[in-house]
Amino acid sequence: MAAKPVAKRLVVLVSGSGTNLQALLDAIAKTGAEAYGAEIVAVGADREGIEGLARAERAGLPTFVCRVKDHESRDEWDAALTEAVSAYEPDLVVSAGFMKIVGKEFLARFGGRFVNTHPALLPSFPGAHGVRDALAYGAKVTGCTVHFVDDGVDTGPIIAQGVVEVRDEDDESALHERIKEVERRLLVEVVGRIARNGYRIEGRKVVIL
Ligand code: GRF
């Protein structure tokens, strides 16, 4: 008899509207956690009162908030975040619009299994304004990148990318909405594949098994 597939444990981190989180929740609800390969065991945020947390609560998931301003230093915040996430014993941590750079302790614990989604085609336009910067540069195509997080800003090994054409009439919000449609599908696909199949990180290359 074949072994029953085991769902990997995911902690998802959010800072905003949480539509990427919702896409993961919907995908898991549709097929079941075992078939998808992963279940969300908790959702964390760096701020209160956001729709991302409300989505988690509606889904009946435990949530936690870890705010920089509640800690003496950035390192203490990083240690608290590491502890809060560790409590849920995740196999993978997903930054789905989490607008904070994590520190050394978090990366020591979760490096190589911390996935981020960024709304540009890295290595172009890293940082907090990837959509605005691509538009201002006059890029004709942009998109999104799902990657592992390292100690730089949006510099870690790339897992997958999706392309979106820039239209003449685009403003930041219209372009970001079209990127997010592609981004949500890509994140769901990538997280499911790495959870089900496993992966290796060889230097800058990510090999999904
Ligand atoms: C995404 O485009 C993500 O890449 C960016 O912020 C957006 C988050 O959207 N960093 P949501 O909160 O998942 O709706």
Can you characterise this structure?
With 209 residues, the protein is α/β, with parallel strands linked by helices. Helix content is 38%, strand content 24%. It has 7 helices and 9 strands. Strand 8 (199-202) and strand 9 (205-208) form a beta hairpin. The longest helix has 26 residues, at 172-197. The chain is globular, with a radius of gyration of 17 Å. Residues 14, 16-20, 52, 96-97, 117-119, 180, 183 line the site of 5-O-phosphono-beta-D-ribofuranosylamine. N(1)-(5-phospho-beta-D-ribosyl)glycinamide binds at residues 18-20. Belongs to the GART family. The active site is at residue 118.
Please give the share of residues in helix.
Answer: 25-40%
Radius of gyration: 17 Å
The general outline is globular
**What is the arithmetic mean of pLDDT?**
97
In the CATH hierarchy, what is the superfamily?
Formyl transferase, N-terminal domain
- Cα(first) to Cα(last) distance is 23 Å
Show the helix and strand layout.
Blueprint (H helix, E strand, L loop, with lengths): L7 E7 L4 H13 L1 H4 L1 E8 L5 H8 L4 E3 L8 H13 L5 E4 L8 H7 L3 E5 L11 H8 L3 E8 L9 E8 L6 H26 L1 E4 L2 E4 L1
The chain binds 5-O-phosphono-beta-D-ribofuranosylamine.
EC number: 2.1.2.2
Catalytic activity: N(1)-(5-phospho-beta-D-ribosyl)glycinamide + (6R)-10-formyltetrahydrofolate = N(2)-formyl-N(1)-(5-phospho-beta-D-ribosyl)glycinamide + (6S)-5,6,7,8-tetrahydrofolate + H(+)
GO cellular component, one term: cytosol
